[in-house]
Amino acid sequence: MRTVGADQKRALASLLLRVDRKTSAPLHAQIDQALRARILAGAVKPGTRLPSSRTLAAELGVARTTVLLALDALQAEGYLVAAPRSGVRVAPELPEQGFAPAPVGTARAPSAPPRLSRAARALVGLGTGAPRLGAAPRPFRPGLPALDLFPIALWSRLVARAQSRASARLLEGGDPTGHPGLRQAISEHVVAARGARCTPEQVFVTAGTQQAFEEVLRLVVDPGDPVWLEDPGYLGARRAVLGAGARAVPVPVDDEGLDVEAGVRRAPRARLVILAPSHQYPLGVTLSLGRRMALLRWAEAERAMILEDDYDSEFRHRGRPLTALQGLDDAGRVLYVGTFSKTMFPGLRLGYVVVPPALVDVFGAARASLPAPASALEQAALATFMDEGHFARHLRRMRGVYRERAEALLDTLRSRCGGVLEPSPCDTGMQLCAMLPRGVSDLVVRDRAARAGIEVAPLSDYRLTRGGRGGLVFGFGAIRPAAIRTGVESLARALHSA
Questions:
Q1: Engineering a disulfide at 332: which of 8, 356, 378, 478 sits with its beta carbon 3.0 to 4.6 angstroms away?
Q2: What is the pLDDT of residue 86?
Q3: What is the pLDDT of residue 384?
Q4: Could you count the other beta carbons within 10 Å of the beta carbon of residue 161?
């Protein structure tokens, strides 16, 4: 039986190697990490001869192959060297001098935080809106449509049909500007339903609103350029502006929408304006006709561009949707952005941007070397969904559903939370804003509601400037009237128990 000599015993003792069979880390990786740490810490000096692989295996109670895997890895990285008749020794010159790795299964804490761009630092400080208290829809998560009423069986059949009839071009990924049939269907829809001026060539399919924002900013704004943003306004627009390195200029919103005169005073030479004129988010107001015309005149005079975010105005509860700002534009200053995440379901991740004729070639060139913006098969299925009239029927049905839910929420808020919350009228979309008494923190109320299982977004999260009256943003699209009333009751108890 082979015995371990005194030198080998001393070498083993200096290594202090252990393996833990209860962790998920492989045994050879544990030996590798532990021996590396001892070498770099100076506990095992350069030139030290290691015990044989058999000795190490016997001491650790592992197979010799396990030890050999660890030693081979350390030799490949320069920590160990092997020579005939000299055995395996610690290398005389070590890589990464002074670096001490963390134990196996843990992450080494950085000595200093990484350097971040100004945009990244600003993004970290943005609000998050309503807290997510679970996966299932609950009162009153903003931005979520009535998923239980979407015709999923019909949609599944259309997707299956698109797959069975897919051409080689479709399977390859499709047109980078978007599926031609879908571009045609979108063009016909926005002309008929929104009063837009549009041909299929002006439509570029996107993977949702956020991609549209980022693409527009990349092509019409340089870093440092001023961009008007509604204050309070949609957080996604602010993220896109910060990501592009542009300068966000907060422009106040009142009962007539974006205050154009205030924007001109603050940044008269802005390159871009981002706004939702038909149903402002989160306040829900509509840009007045006078301000629409003033904004268009200013944009033409300054050669500025306007990004019109038309995220849910198809859901006007009574009467026809308002004419899009793009439909009033004679100078080619408006880029019109729409999404199917609200009209259908968020997981679809399909949207579009309608660009002025003068920018068609610019957007086409930008897309030329890129893959299709979204699933070509889903684009083909959506084109059929629209062509066969299913989309228009779904919109008509949901207008009635959202009108009923908006009325249930307004009535219950007024009867149960009167004196604490002042809800605004709601004639479009799937959310409304309710103001709190002056001096009451909407962040505190948000947290109190969350403890009662209620998701509401604080209005202060959407403000670019500090101060202003607090409020709460309620989403009601995914909540049936009975659940709306129950949710308001829970919220009222939380508000009045403080």
A1: 356
A2: 74
A3: 97
A4: 14
Confirm if 202 and 362 have CB atoms less than 8 A apart: no
Report the CATH number of the 6-90 domain.
Answer: 1.10.10.10
Residue range(s) in the chain whose domain bears CATH number 3.90.1150.10: 128-142+396-496
| CA separation for the pair 366, 344 (Å, rounded) | 28
Q: List every span in the chain annotated with CATH 3.40.640.10.
A: 150-392
Q: Which of 230, 234, 232 is nearest to 249 (CA)?
A: 230
Low-confidence stretches of the chain (pLDDT < 50) are 1-2, 97-102, 104
What is the pLDDT at residue 204? Answer: 97
Q: What is the pTM of this model?
A: 0.76
Quick one: which of 496, 401, 495, 408 has its CA closest to 454?
Answer: 495
What was the pLDDT predicted at 125? 66
- Cβ neighbors of 301 (< 8 A, separation 6 or more) are none
CATH match of 150-392 with 3.40.630.30: no
> What's the number of CA atoms in the CB half-sphere (13 Å) around residue 6?
0
CATH 1.10.10.10-classified regions of the chain: 6-90
Element (H, E) at 498: none
Q: What single-letter DSSP state applies at residue 140? A: B
Q: How many CA atoms lie within 13 A of 406 on its CB side?
A: 23
Task: Please return the burial class of 228, using the count of CB atoms within 10 Å of its CB with bins 0-12, 13-18 and 19+.
Answer: buried
pLDDT score for 98: 44
Q: What is the DSSP string of 407-467?
A: HHHHHHHHHHSTTT-EEPP--BSSEEEEEPPTT--HHHHHHHHHHTT---EEGGGG-SSS-
Rg (CA), the chain: 31
Specify the DSSP class assigned to residue 107: P
Residue 176 burial (CB < 10 Å; 0-12/13-18/19+)? middle
Give the per-residue pLDDT at 210. Answer: 94
Burial class from Cβ neighbours inside 10 Å (0-12, 13-18, 19+) for residue 265 reads: exposed
237 closest CA partner among 343, 335, 359: 335
- 3-state SS, 370-386, equals CCCCCCHHHHHHHHHHH
Fold of the domain built from segment(s) 128-142+396-496: Aspartate Aminotransferase, domain 1 (3.90.1150)
Tens-digit pLDDT profile for residues 412-466 = 999 999 889 999 999 999 999 999 999 999 999 999 999 999 999 999 999 999 8
